């Protein structure tokens, strides 16, 4: 079963950033209102995620790590079936199979917490500990036991950039959660968790120009758009700050990006991209979200219609701002 975990890890744990994503999503699932992420050396050596969420009960602690390392997955074809279900219960098991993991967790109802260490999938210690409510997970030395994969990680700078991107988009999608992001002992950003999108954008992106973003609040036929778009004078050399959520889920959509860019067409230099944080709500029956948890693609039916809606509404918002 340790082999199966490693194979599954190949799917779930693409690199440090995917660990950060899974851990933050677990904290959000646990209804945390405060999440701290600390990384060292691009997360390759050290990732810590601390939350004030529900915590895990003493008797559930080991299960959380080992859930699918059972006879459930006995054949290769079953394995693929489980993977295609979207890794429910796969993340922690996968992470612990390819790294050294420590977890400290306590529920509100317990007097004390549990500290557990799991190394390459094996529990090496478990003991009671005094700690606050919530969960801290520390992931050290990713891929220490899979040398081939160790080599495929990017430079510290490259991995850090991917982690920053993932934390940014998760923090922007949850203005109600106070995030703190620390990289090599430097605080990169903290958000207030006050539920306010513009203050969250400002906390993360910081630059002065964020203050001048244009608020969008549009309803058109079968979609609504809320969020902030940048002035045409604020642009980037790539699409990394076109941050788009469809029905609350972060997506990369060429269609949506092109629709946004069309609204800016006359106002942006060639090969430059606008900045935005947009929440788009579309009737779920009009979209087809890829179920793969690591994928961010979204398929939109009736594309031409949606494209026009987005582009026209944003153009209106831009014109209203200028006039
Ligand atoms: P999944 O999230 O798909 O259930 P994971 O492997 O990510 O699977 O997590 C396994 C289980 O561990 C979760 O279902 C949850 O019960 C528990 N868990 C993990 N992280 C946390 C956390 N930060 N707070 C509370 N419970 C957690
Ligand atoms: Mg999970």
Automatic annotation (TrEMBL):
Gene Ontology BP, a term: mismatch repair
Gene: mutL
Keywords: DNA damage, DNA repair, Endonuclease, Hydrolase, Nuclease
Domain DNA mismatch repair protein S5: 201-319
Functional summary from the UniProt entry: This protein is involved in the repair of mismatches in DNA. It is required for dam-dependent methyl-directed DNA mismatch repair. May act as a 'molecular matchmaker', a protein that promotes the formation of a stable complex between two or more DNA-binding proteins in an ATP-dependent manner without itself being part of a final effector complex.
Family assignment from sequence similarity: Belongs to the DNA mismatch repair MutL/HexB family.
GO molecular function: ATP binding; ATP hydrolysis activity; ATP-dependent DNA damage sensor activity; endonuclease activity; mismatched DNA binding
GO CC annotations on file: mismatch repair complex
Species of the source: Alkaliphilus pronyensis
The name this protein goes by in its record: DNA mismatch repair protein MutL
Keyword Lyase: no
Record has Nuclease as a keyword: yes
């Amino acid at each position: 079963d340790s082999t199966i975990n490693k194979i599954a890890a190949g799917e779930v744990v693409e690199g440090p950033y995917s660990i950060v994503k899974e851990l933050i999503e677990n904290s959000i699932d646990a209804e945390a209102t405060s999440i701290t992420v600390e990384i060292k050396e691009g997360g390759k050596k050290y990732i810590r995620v601390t939350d004030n969420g529900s915590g895990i009960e003493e008797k559930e602690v080991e299960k959380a790590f080992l859930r699918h390392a059972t006879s459930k997955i006995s054949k290769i074809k079953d394995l693929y079936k489980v993977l295609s279900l979207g890794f429910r219960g796969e993340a922690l098991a996968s992470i612990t199979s390819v790294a050294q993991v420590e977890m400290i967790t306590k529920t509100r109802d317990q007097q004390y917490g549990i500290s557990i260490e799991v190394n390459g999938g094996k529990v090496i210690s478990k003991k009671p500990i005094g700690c606050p409510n919530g969960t801290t997970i520390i992931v050290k030395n990713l891929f220490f036991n899979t040398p081939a994969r160790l080599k495929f990680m990017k430079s510290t700078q490259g991995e850090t950039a991917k982690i920053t991107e993932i934390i940014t988009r998760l923090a922007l999608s949850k203005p109600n959660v106070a995030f703190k992001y620390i990289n090599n002992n430097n605080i990169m950003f903290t958000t207030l968790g006050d539920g306010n999108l513009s203050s969250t954008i400002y906390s993360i992106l910081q630059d002065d120009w964020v203050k001048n973003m244009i608020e969008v609040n549009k309803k058109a036929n079968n979609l609504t758009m809320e969020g902030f778009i940048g002035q045409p004078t604020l642009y980037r050399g790539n699409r990394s700050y076109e941050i788009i959520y469809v029905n609350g889920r972060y997506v990369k959509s060429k269609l949506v990006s092109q629709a946004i860019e069309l609204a800016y067409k006359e106002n942006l230099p060639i090969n430059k991209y606008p900045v935005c944080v947009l929440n788009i709500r579309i009737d779920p029956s009009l979209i087809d979200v890829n179920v793969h948890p690591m994928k961010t693609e979204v398929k939109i039916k009736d594309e031409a219609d949606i494209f026009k809606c987005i582009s026209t509404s944003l153009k209106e918002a831009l014109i209203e701002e200028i006039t």
